[in-house]
């Protein structure tokens, strides 16, 4: 998958100065599979960047292209198809279903894509240390635990690009490393890439490219 | 699981309200439609002979007519005027026999001996719808005759008693032959006739036009006779215009003859009002369901947006939602049809039967079709509404 930005500038960020290295108001192209990190402090537009690629935000000037196609021409149905087959995401606000159990949240995605056996789901939950929580309602979990559910959910589909918006903000370094290893492994299995946004920590991972804001 | 997510925040109050509204509305609509069809098709046995909208008109006999100063004949101009009325689709003056007629029994056919002076009239064949052979020609075995139903009543409950002979059943009257005595310009002749039907609408003795034309030519005096009774066919629901015409032309119409038309018009209006009310209830309940869907969808807006972001298609979400609605509408439709059939079988049919009214055809199938069409409209309208709302949430 190819992501291309041509002088993209979100309307809410027009008042702020953007450096020559910034993804905003610049032209660049990334060919995935590639593991990319976007490291920036709060308020610079990390979520805006992720949501722009994911088609949730369309309030920008300039051109964003996915696989050489201008995303402003995409219909909702095209975005949905892309999200089911090529693009996956871990939202900063997680976007889980609080009234469903951990397993139901995962199955909701897995039943759509038929991507993994239930045994693999349990393995992943256990690997991230929440194997005993599968029948608990998500709303009763801590933020860190919910974050791990959202991470596993994002891995339950085929993808060429996984977008992660501060996915480890509520995890300790050790758990973040375990999660990142799992993500990297699944990304390789999918022959895909990822973009990870972070507030400063690289979680000891060796990224292939770094973006700035 | 989708169903659980989408309907988690449903509000039962509105749902129950809309469901009850739809059930009442649909039942009332089907029932009124079905009754309307019944009313349109019901008839007394009489109409089998003369079609549903045909009546005989004649001028009222007044004191002046009795003195011979005011004719009850219709002039050619008046007949033409009738033909030009928009609500009248067919006009046929009665033709009368231009010779004297009497009837008596045929010995051995079961009728008591009698002899009575008579008259013959005829109307065009198109007004008659008889199962028996109404055609007549010179080779025919007998002359078919339609008698007024009152005639047999007069014989059985009047003449038979006073003259001391046995009463005559309708069956016997239809089976027995009659001797027709014709006294014309060239002497007398006898022919055989047979009663083929009874009429409540026409107080006349009818014979085929072909016979009357032939007999008038052969036995008549040759004078032109102006008609004094006219058969007319009107368009549906023209009772009001007919009343007006009666006033204008000082007409007399056999009361029983217009009863069916009158009942049809009045019941039609009542059922029409009932039907309009039912349509309004249906529209309100449809709006109720549309609002219910919108409320449920807006309460589930986070869930729907998230599902679309996870890759669930609009179609899958709409399908899950509409499936639930279709089940609800299906139950409403089946219930409404069941209630309608019960009312039809247990109340309407029993009443019709008790009142001796027969129906030409079953009105149930069209009413069930109407219910299914309503089901389709409900599902269709909600489908469009849900699809639009889900798409808006996604965008």
Could you characterize the architecture of this molecule?
The complex is a heterodimer of chains A (213) and B (395). Chain A is α/β, with parallel strands linked by helices. Chain A is built from six helices and nine strands, in the order βββαββαβαααβαββ. Chain A has helices at residues 46-53, 76-85, 102-113, 118-127, 143-154, 173-189, and strands at 2-10, 27-31, 35-39, 60-66, 69-70, 87-90, 161-165, 193-198, 209-211. In chain A, strands 6-7-8-3-9 form a five-stranded parallel β-sheet, sandwiched between helices. In chain A, strands 2-1-4-5 form a four-stranded antiparallel β-sheet, with helices on one face. The radius of gyration of chain A is 17 Å and the shape is globular. The two termini of chain A are 22 Å apart. In chain B, helix 2 crosses helix 12 (314-354) and helix 12 (314-354) packs antiparallel against helix 13. Chain B is elongated, with a radius of gyration of 32 Å. Chains A and B meet through helix 2 and helix 3 of A and helix 1 and helix 11 of B.
